[in-house]
Write a structure and sequence with these properties.
Length: about 450
């Protein structure tokens, strides 16, 4: 009965034999040996280690991989943050506060893509089809062939997406989708994880791109989309300060592109307008720059962005002085204040300190250190910086001004916008048309601000 190479597994104890017999030699049970494909003979590991091919096909780092194909939607700011368009079969999470404009953005993305022949679906779990349609009409997108549906049942959505071929699907929002396989309520971690998991699997299997909308609340009461972040290929945040029309799409994770890229939009009556050149957007161009304001020559993603940093240093009315910061990191502000105190003798112990980044932008670059310090010193001394001056440079704990990336690009953009002076790290090469004031140490820069000394030497 035994054949060459055949293996027999006992259905009772699991022991594997190389020949068939009526009774299992291992457990003694009768008629339990069955020929099994893929069963391993006893001691197989030792025998086959050297000869058996491994299941992993290893490859070298130097082999070339074709770039993934991209769905170009035609909304350039969106496409750039994606890394040149949406990759088919990928899943993207857009996280943002309620009301920031996520639905508006994705409706525009879907509509623009549809106009280019991309097969798009927009599934809303929050609004009725009429609401989405009337918004699309108001935004002048009624002609675009986007398939709309209002649905919250995961099963219905998956079935619907299997029935028709789509390239790009928007699910608005993941918190409203529920699966009947789980008892937890919609929006719970269990439901969000289950729905996202199934949609991501569907995306991979069918090669369609899925964009999931996720609300984040400051209180974190809704099961945040944090659980989804690990499942998707890209996470973008959509940000904007209340009272400002500017909205920023920022890559937080991207398997198919750079994560420091931003897209800039302006919310208006007809939806979001793309801001193709945001460099002057966050500058306060009306009127003179007062004491306490410094223009930071920043880089956001691949583009230079000039932004005004405003500081107010005022005597503290209470025992504990206040520190408040908008658009920058509070910890970074504490560090700059400590360095100003320890290395420059500028004390803020009995002062309230407020720092604000104009226009609702959020800065994360360390290159903004010197601009923040300059704004603080300018307010503390009540001396305005020259109107035509930009500032950049990182500050170390020892009080040195460190060089930052792309100093030339920063200055060139500033020169283009009419700035004629730059204050920065000592070893930077000034760009054409720029008077450059280099500072080795923060104390040098602070002294200049104090004295109003802007001579280049
Ligand atoms: P929405 O996209 O619904 O936000 P989200 O999906 O992130 O919750 O946008 C809501 C806000 O945008 C709302 O306050 C109104 C404003 N808005 C405009 O100012 N202009 C417009 O054309 C649209 C569609 C919305
Ligand atoms: Mg919405």
């Amino acid at each position: 009965m035994a054949r060459d190479g055949a293996l027999y597994a006992c259905q009772s104890c699991g022991a594997v034999q190389t020949r068939w017999s009526g009774q299992c030699p291992a457990c003694g049970a009768w008629n339990t040996l069955v020929e099994e494909i893929g069963a391993r003979p006893p001691g197989a590991l030792k025998l086959t280690k050297a000869t058996r091919k491994t299941g992993l096909a290893f490859e070298g780092l130097d082999e070339s991989t074709p770039a993934p194909p991209r769905i170009v939607t035609g909304v350039d700011e969106w496409d750039r943050v994606c890394g040149g368009g949406v990759v088919p079969g990928s899943a993207i999470l857009i996280a943002g506060d309620p009301g920031v404009g996520k639905s508006t953005l994705l409706l525009q993305v879907a509509a623009q893509a549809a106009r280019r022949g991309v097969r798009c679906a927009y599934i809303s779990g929050e609004e009725a089809v009429e609401q989405v349609r009337s918004r699309a009409q108001r935004m002048g997108l009624a002609d675009a062939d986007v398939k709309l549906a209002a649905e919250t049942s995961l099963r219905a959505i998956i079935d619907g997406l299997k029935a028709e071929p789509f390239d790009l699907v928007v699910i608005d929002s993941i918190q409203t989708i529920w699966s009947d396989a789980h008892e937890a309520g919609p929006g719970s971690v269990t439901q969000v994880r289950a729905a996202a998991g199934e949609l991501v699997r569907l995306a991979k299997k069918r090669g369609l791109a899925v964009v999931l909308v996720g609300h984040v609340t400051k209180e974190g009461t809704l099961a945040g989309p944090r659980v989804v972040e690990h499942m998707v290929d890209a996470v973008f945040s959509f940000e904007g300060e209340r009272g400002y029309p500017f909205r920023i799409l920022r890559g937080a994770k991207n398997r198919f592109g750079a994560t420091d890229e931003i897209g800039v939009f302006e919310m208006g009556d007809a939806g979001l307008a793309e801001v193709k050149n945001p460099s002057a957007l966050f500058l306060n161009t009306s009127g003179e720059r007062a004491a306490g304001a410094a223009v930071f020559a920043g880089i956001e993603g691949s583009r230079p962005v000039l932004v005004e940093i405003q500081a107010l240093v005022a005597p503290s009315a209470y025992g504990t002085p206040r520190r408040a910061v908008v658009g920058w990191d509070g910890g970074r502000l504490a560090m700059i204040l400590a360095v100003l105190e320890a290395r420059c003798g500028l004390s803020f112990g009995d002062r309230d300190v407020y720092l604000n980044v104009a226009g609702g932008l959020r800065i994360s670059e360390p290159a903004a250190d010197l601009a923040a310090a300059a704004a603080l010193a300018s307010s503390a001394f009540d001396v305005a910086l020259p109107q035509d001056c930009v500032v950049f440079g990182e500050i170390s704990l020892s009080g040195e001004v460190r060089p930052v990336s792309r100093m030339d690009g920063r200055m060139k953009e500033a020169a283009k916008l009419g700035f004629r002076r730059a204050l920065g790290p000592a070893d930077a090469d000034p760009a054409a048309g720029m008077a450059f004031i280099g500072a080795h140490r923060l104390a040098d820069a602070i002294q200049r601000i104090h004295d109003g000394d802007w001579e280049t030497r």
